[in-house]
């Protein structure tokens, strides 16, 4: 009887710890790992990051130049179930328990916010007619477009720092605010 009670106490403690860790990862802070070279030279492949999810939880838009993690499936609606399952899948992939072949969580930099007009010419990004000072980019951007992009309400425009080797808003379009999952606060 004493052994059973002790076993149940352990199961209860482990369950509470797991639930608390899940809530923290889903709504407050999440560790993740960079996969790929799209954020070079700022972030390199396999860098570990800590992401604050507080702005996502509170529904706040990120600031210009913030490095954020996004759900790149911009045409798909997100729900609270995604907020629970994504950190768990990321943790299992980082620890190599599972092979995360989906790769829908991307790390990017915020370039435009709602109402901004963006242009891409002369190897630079122009926001509202002014060339951005971007000392963090890897090299001059090869991409150019005659089309001006106006960032819609409740969306942001994100790009990788390695502009010539990055899938970002130039390809998937502006990212809905609820697809911005958090802001990078620490790199290891």
Summarize the structure.
The chain is of the alpha+beta class and 188 residues long. The chain has one domain (2-187): Umud Fragment, subunit A.
Look at the helices and sheets and give the structural class: alpha+beta
Largest sheet: 7 strands, antiparallel
Number of E-state strands = 11
Could you give the order of the helices and strands?
HEEHEHEEEEEEHEE
Write down the Rg.
19 Å
User: How many domains is the backbone divided into?
Assistant: 1
Shape: elongated
CATH fold node name: Umud Fragment, subunit A
Describe the structure.
The protein is of the alpha+beta class and 188 residues long. It has one domain: Umud Fragment, subunit A (Ribbon). The protein has four helices and eleven strands. Strands 1-2-11-3-4-9-10 form a seven-stranded antiparallel β-sheet. Strand 6 and strand 7 form a beta hairpin. Helix 1 packs across helix 3. The radius of gyration is 19 Å and the shape is elongated. The mean pLDDT is 90.
SSE topology sketch:
Elements (H helix, E strand, L loop, with lengths): L1 H26 L1 E5 L14 E5 L1 H5 L8 E5 L8 H15 L10 E8 L4 E5 L2 E4 L2 E2 L13 E6 L4 E5 L9 H4 L2 E2 L3 E8 L1
Antiparallel strand pairs: 1-2, 2-11, 3-4, 3-11, 4-9, 5-6, 5-8, 6-7, 9-10
Question: Which features characterize this protein?
Answer:
four-stranded antiparallel beta sheet, 188 residues, 4 helices, Umud Fragment, subunit A, 27% helix, 11 strands, alpha+beta, seven-stranded antiparallel beta sheet, single chain
């Amino acid at each position: 009887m004493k052994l059973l009670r002790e076993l149940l106490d352990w199961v209860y403690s482990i369950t509470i710890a797991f639930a608390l860790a899940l809530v923290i990862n889903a709504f407050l802070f999440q560790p993740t790992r960079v996969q790929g070279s799209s954020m070079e030279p700022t972030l390199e492949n396999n860098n570990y990051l800590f992401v604050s999810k507080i702005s996502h939880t509170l529904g706040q838009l990120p600031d210009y130049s913030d490095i954020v993690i996004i759900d790149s499936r911009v045409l798909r609606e997100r729900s609270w179930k995604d907020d629970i399952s994504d950190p768990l899948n990321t943790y299992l992939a980082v620890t190599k328990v599972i092979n995360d072949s989906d790769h829908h969580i991307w790390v990017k930099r915020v370039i435009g916010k709602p109402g901004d007009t963006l242009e891409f010419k002369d190897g630079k990004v122009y926001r509202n007619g002014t060339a951005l000072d971007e000392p963090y980019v890897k090299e001059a951007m090869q991409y150019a477009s005659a089309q001006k992009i106006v960032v819609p309400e409740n969306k942001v425009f994100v790009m990788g720092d390695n502009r010539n080797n990055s899938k970002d808003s130039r390809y998937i379009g502006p990212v809905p605010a609820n697809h911005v999952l958090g802001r990078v606060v620490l790199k290891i």
